[in-house]
Amino acid sequence: MRRRRFPRRLVPRGLRTRLVVAFLLVATVSALAAAALTFRQARAAILDRARDDAVHDLRAQVGSLAPDLPAAPAATDLRALTLQLDRAGGSRDWRTAAAYRDDALVSAAGPAPALPERLRGAAASARTAVVQRFHHADEPWLAVALPVTRADRPAEPSGLVVYASFSLAGQERDVAALVAAARAGALPVVLLAVVPALLAARRVLRPVRQLRSAAENMAAGALDTRIRVTGDDELADLGRTFNTMAATLQADAATLRAMEARARRFAADVSHELRTPLAAMTAVTGVLDQDAASGRLDPETSEALELVADETNKLVRMVEDLMEISRFDAGAAVLEIDEIDVGELVGKTLALRHWQDRVGADVPPGLRARLDPRRVDVVLANLIGNALRHGGPSVPVDVRARAEDDRLVITVTDGGPGIPDDVLPHVFDRFTKGDKARTRSEGSGLGLAIAAENARLHGGTLTAANAPGAGAVFTLTLPWAPV
């Protein structure tokens, strides 16, 4: 059997609303409990007093009239007794009857008064008054059975029992009035409880709101945010804990920023210092390459020279990438905007690197844009080179460009195995390489990071995804307006 769930809109979601509702529920339950207890005690007191007064009055009347009766009273004597008792009932308006031993009930006039069946049996063996409440004609009644003792021998029953019954409708009306008064008094109590409930909720939620505001400020970067703590309750302890946490985070953030600044400065300094010796090494390897090409060097020396030249070129590219990243980190990278033809830019990028035969280009003719051609060339070169390396030499690579509303969208797609799912979220992180199985690769791990930084510098985005079939898709989106 499925559990029925209430609609979410019927459940109060705000903490303030929940506190007020809980406070009101407690006040309502307390008021109802107090009203119920008061009603129960008042009803018992009213009915007990009616019983005690009736027993007392009946005993007093019987005590004054019974001595005049004969030892074995006849029916006429009992009728005269009940007549006098009926007249003495006063506002209680009871009806009485009497029975001697097991004879029939005798009343003053008419039929005997209404009595419960068990009352006569209980009174036959009782030595004190027997009282029982019952219903008659849809009204509550009270019946009293009073055994009469002999005047000369009080401990011995005389065999005479006097019965009296009367309606408790008046007492029930008093009880009903109490219920109405309790019900009417509970509503103002609940309504008045709204004021202390709101005040209590406000007092409880004030530090919670302060904590929320302080947490939002810290999330926005204001790590020096602190809250004012007063009191010694649990919320005050929470506030002090928050301040301690904020101070720790601020100190850790300052330490991390200092370490990051030192690391960036170190990378920039090392890259700068490496440029001069690398330039000399490149010049020397260039001269030696000419000697190797002319055949003046033996094969083993030529092979070693080729290895040194390749590694030197890789090191030069890595240093250049590090320098470029350092400029981005220092905020020194600037755009040199120019109006260019996107098709020509893509063609030059492919021709400069001899990729015309391996890469397909689909650019609408006459598509022009205002951007930094050097930086867009760097982005395209990194994306296409990455696609050629990881897609394989026989896998086609496509470059497509199109204008969509106010955006220029350039996609680079390859048909390779795609980007692993665990690498895809980090593909633009620095020093991330898509093929972890290769401990040695041509890339520095900075190419895609530099491409993403150039896209952001233009106010655009660079995203990576896997195509539905196979291969990776890189999408460069830049601001664009018709030129």
From TrEMBL:
SMART domains: HAMP, HATPase_c, HisKA
A Pfam family recorded for this sequence: HAMP
This protein's record includes keyword GTP-binding: no
Keywords: Kinase, Membrane, Phosphoprotein, Signal, Transferase, Transmembrane, Transmembrane helix, Two-component regulatory system
Occurrences of domain HAMP (ranges): 202-254
Main location: membrane
Database matches in CDD domains: HAMP (cd06225), HATPase (cd00075), HisKA (cd00082)
The protein's name: histidine kinase
